[in-house]
From TrEMBL:
CTP binds at residues 280, 290, 334, 352, 356. Residues 1-190 are annotated as: Phosphopantothenoylcysteine decarboxylase. In the N-terminal section; belongs to the HFCD (homo-oligomeric flavin containing Cys decarboxylase) superfamily. The lineage of its organism: Bacteria, Bacillati, Actinomycetota, Actinomycetes, Mycobacteriales. It comes from the Bacteria. This is Coenzyme A biosynthesis bifunctional protein CoaBC. Residues 191-417 are annotated as: Phosphopantothenate--cysteine ligase. GO terms for molecular function: FMN binding; metal ion binding; phosphopantothenate--cysteine ligase activity; phosphopantothenoylcysteine decarboxylase activity. Keywords: Decarboxylase, Flavoprotein, FMN, Ligase, Lyase, Magnesium, Metal-binding, Multifunctional enzyme. Its EC number is 4.1.1.36, 6.3.2.5. InterPro entries: CoaB-like_sf (IPR035929), CoaBC (IPR005252), DNA/pantothenate-metab_flavo_C (IPR007085), Flavin_trans-like (IPR036551), Flavoprotein (IPR003382). Binds 1 FMN per subunit. It comes from Mycolicibacterium litorale. PANTHER family: HOMO-OLIGOMERIC FLAVIN CONTAINING CYS DECARBOXYLASE FAMILY (PTHR14359), PHOSPHOPANTOTHENOYLCYSTEINE DECARBOXYLASE (PTHR14359:SF6). Gene3D superfamilies: CoaB-like (3.40.50.10300), Flavin prenyltransferase-like (3.40.50.1950).
Length: 417
């Protein structure tokens, strides 16, 4: 990605220290980052820290370098503004159009995407004034992230925790890749997402698995949540990924556990996204103790009998068609394919799409450094109307946003959107 000019605004909350990691991540991604803290923010983190991390001087007021008109110029020249943390006070001042410091003045002059990452106590986040302010900012086109839940100041815990810096920087990169704001268009929609690979036990030590990292499924859950959906994420092996903010996460291990979790949560869902890499086979019997390797080199290795696992995607489509999922309006499948002597990737994907019966199928060509265990992805999106759309190469979060665009179009076209 080309070097972009990013403004990181920092409001005066205890989470201001996390902005240091955010600034470092954005600068290490190759961007020109300038920090605009409030006076209160500098009581938590000193100006020297932000200057060292960004390589730019730090000012809070409009009276420094007046000849350069910074209160206007900074916003005019920015490609993205990220405010993290955005306190309840900062959100209120942004809604009111205040311009009493350099940060709020920049918010008024910026014509690029603006993203707020709120951080405050739970009671403040759910107060009607804050709820109205967030709705107003979103209506005006700003992106206001859903906060995480967890430990707050002192012993308190709940919604209002600042999302991790990695998540904020990932969504910032998405806004730069998209070139526009992330719409808040899925309020009231319940989405169920599966992610990661399943592990089918052979014995207490060994398992049958696959190379799925869960990154694409986590990206789907993250984008759906930040566009307003109420998201439940069923996660298999996800290699220690950070749980997305604003998402309820259910951790599972095997294909059978994934099937049971989907069966439990799907009846309430409007959208099902089956991004998990489910093992096609499992051992018929899992040993209760470790299978020992014989000391006799001439002894044959043990034989493991396999049986098929349930096709959870096809089963969900059947359950919806049988009336067991009355709320379900869109089912999205994923297919990781390779070509062979019988046909190329799309040949096999089209056949799978016909068998599954879902509304959308995301197709990835897999191979060395492709699809699995990487941060970028590409592929195709097959739709029930017969269309086939190429998904351009980019971050998995960008791919997720394009898939969610298609989901939104489906929901709006089914007469209930």
């Amino acid at each position: 990605m080309d070097r972009k000019r990013i403004i990181v605004g920092v409001a005066g909350g205890i989470a201001a220290y996390k902005a240091c990691t955010l600034v470092r991540q954005l600068t290490e991604a190759g961007h020109d980052v300038r920090v605009l803290p409030t006076e209160s923010a500098l009581r938590f983190v000193g100006a020297a820290t932000f200057e060292a991390l960004s390589g730019h001087p730090v000012h809070t007021g409009v009276w420094d370098d007046v000849h350069e008109v910074p209160h206007v110029r900074i916003g005019q020249e920015a490609d993205l503004v990220v405010v993290a943390p955005a306190t309840a006070d900062l959100l209120a001042r942004a809604v009111a159009g205040r311009a009493d410091d350099l940060l709020t003045a920049t918010l008024l002059t910026a014509r690029c995407p603006v993203m707020f990452a709120p951080a405050m106590h739970t009671e403040m986040w759910f107060h009607p004034a804050t709820v109205d302010n967030v709705a107003t900012l979103r209506r005006r086109g700003a992106v206001v992230l859903e906060p995480a839940s967890g430990r707050l100041t002192g012993a308190d815990s709940g919604a209002g925790r600042l999302p991790e810096a990695e998540e904020i920087s990932t969504l910032a990169q998405l806004l730069l890749e998209r070139g526009d704001a992330l719409p808040y268009d899925l309020a009231g929609v319940k989405a169920l997402v599966t992610a990661g690979g399943t592990r089918e036990p052979i014995d207490p030590v060994r398992f049958i698995g696959n190379r799925s990292s869960g990154k694409q499924g986590y990206a789907m859950a993250r984008v759906l949540a930040q566009r307003g959906a109420e998201v439940t994420l069923i996660a298999g092996n996800t290699a220690g990924l950070v749980d997305p903010a604003g998402v309820d996460v259910v951790h599972i291990g095997s294909a059978a556990q994934l099937r049971d979790a989907v069966s439990k949560h799907a009846p309430e869902a409007h959208v099902l996204v089956m991004a998990a890499a489910v093992a096609d086979f499992r051992p018929v019997h899992a040993a209760t103790s470790k299978i020992k390797k014989s000391s006799d080199p001439g002894e044959d290795a043990p034989t493991i009998d396999l049986t098929r696992t349930d096709d959870i995607l096809a089963g969900s489509v059947r359950a919806r068609n049988d009336g067991q999922l009355p709320n379900m309006r869109a089912i999205v499948g994923f297919a990781a394919e390779t070509g062979d002597a019988n046909g190329d990737v799309l040949f096999h994907a089209r056949a799978k799409f016909r068998r599954k019966g879902c509304e959308l199928l995301v197709v990835n060509a897999v191979g060395e450094n492709r699809a699995f265990e990487v941060d970028n992805n590409d592929g195709w999106l097959l739709a029930a109307d017969g269309s086939e759309t190429a998904l351009e190469h980019g971050s998995k979060t960008l791919m997720a946003s394009r898939i969610v665009d298609a989901i939104v179009a489906l929901l709006h076209n089914d007469g209930n959107g």
